[in-house]
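Design request, tokens follow.
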């Protein structure tokens, strides 16, 4: 009798184990299916291709609407970016750096300033931060109608000439700077908020009283202020730009941005960017290629001659350690 009871217990345990294994296998299959569907839709997208985009391509982008494939793709949650193929089979730093530096130094579209734009917006008044005021895009009209909005993510106010220029032109300007003393300031038609923009959600284990400033993702900030769109997003975050950009891509925040002004720091990998040096540069390049898939085109590239000539702690092609890039969203359609 005891033997029969023992056999039944063993059979029940075996049956339970088999059911657990079967459920685990089903979960793995469902995950693989979702990943494969996401890759299939990305490959079907007309913008998923290597090479430099021509001005003609950008003009057609500006006049077209989002295709159904991209809309379907956006329904699929993303938790990592798609890495581009290696620049060469050797997977070496030189090949990756050559491709990356050539890419960020080659504008994909040209932006002509219309005669109706005030002379104050000439390049010499904006330094290295250059706006795209081409009539094919919306920013010039938005500034003229005083319906434009700018977000500036920064650490300190060393270079805020562009923010002040847009604020004096009637734009709504919000600067997010964790270094200021008060929670909110209004200075020369600009709102300055003591808020740190992060790529992670706030840590619930850290009491808010211990933080000098609040910490939020950009998507949460947009929701908090009730802003659906931003005409100009300026990012100058001293080596945090890579993880911030990755978060904006994964959470599809870039769809609501008309212009992206981005300062890159190349002397080291950046905060929470891991891997060996070739992998780091491949990751950088893949992030910028993601911008292309989001309909952004590079119109401005500025290499800062005053910064050290360092590329991942070494002199490579005498390249500056700091670049400022300007990207225009060719699919941006202002609402209201």
């Amino acid at each position: 009798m005891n033997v029969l009871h023992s056999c039944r217990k063993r059979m029940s345990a075996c049956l339970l184990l088999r059911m657990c294994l079967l459920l685990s296998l089903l979960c793995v299959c469902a995950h693989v299916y979702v990943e494969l569907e996401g890759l299939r839709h990305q490959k079907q997208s007309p913008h998923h291709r290597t090479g430099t985009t021509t001005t003609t391509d950008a003009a057609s982008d500006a006049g077209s609407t989002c295709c159904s494939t991209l809309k379907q793709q956006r329904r699929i949650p993303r938790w990592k970016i798609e890495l581009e193929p290696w620049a060469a089979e050797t997977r070496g730093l030189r090949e990756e750096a050559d491709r990356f530096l050539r890419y960020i130094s080659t504008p994909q579209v040209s932006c002509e300033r219309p005669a109706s734009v005030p002379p104050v917006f000439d390049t010499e008044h904006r330094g290295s931060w250059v706006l795209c005021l081409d009539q094919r895009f919306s920013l010039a009209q938005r500034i003229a109608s005083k319906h434009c909005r700018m977000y500036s993510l920064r650490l300190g106010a060393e270079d805020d000439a562009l923010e002040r220029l847009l604020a004096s032109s009637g734009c709504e300007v919000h600067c997010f700077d964790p270094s200021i003393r008060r929670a909110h300031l209004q200075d020369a038609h600009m709102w300055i908020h003591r808020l740190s923009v992060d790529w992670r959600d706030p840590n619930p284990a850290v009491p808010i009283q211990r933080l000098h400033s609040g910490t939020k993702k950009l998507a949460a900030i947009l929701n908090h202020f009730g802003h659906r769109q931003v005409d100009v997003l300026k990012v100058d975050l001293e080596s945090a730009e890579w993880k911030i950009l990755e978060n904006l891509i994964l959470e599809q925040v870039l769809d609501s941005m008309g212009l992206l002004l981005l300062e890159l720091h190349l002397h080291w990998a950046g905060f929470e960017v891991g891997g060996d040096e070739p992998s780091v540069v491949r990751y950088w390049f893949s992030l910028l290629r993601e911008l292309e898939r989001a309909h952004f085109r590079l119109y401005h590239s500025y290499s800062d001659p005053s910064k050290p000539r360092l590329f991942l702690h070494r002199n490579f092609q005498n390249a500056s350690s700091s670049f400022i890039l300007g990207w225009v969203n060719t699919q941006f359609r202002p609402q209201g």
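Comment from the thread starter after seeing the answer: thanks! The longest helix spans residues 2-44.
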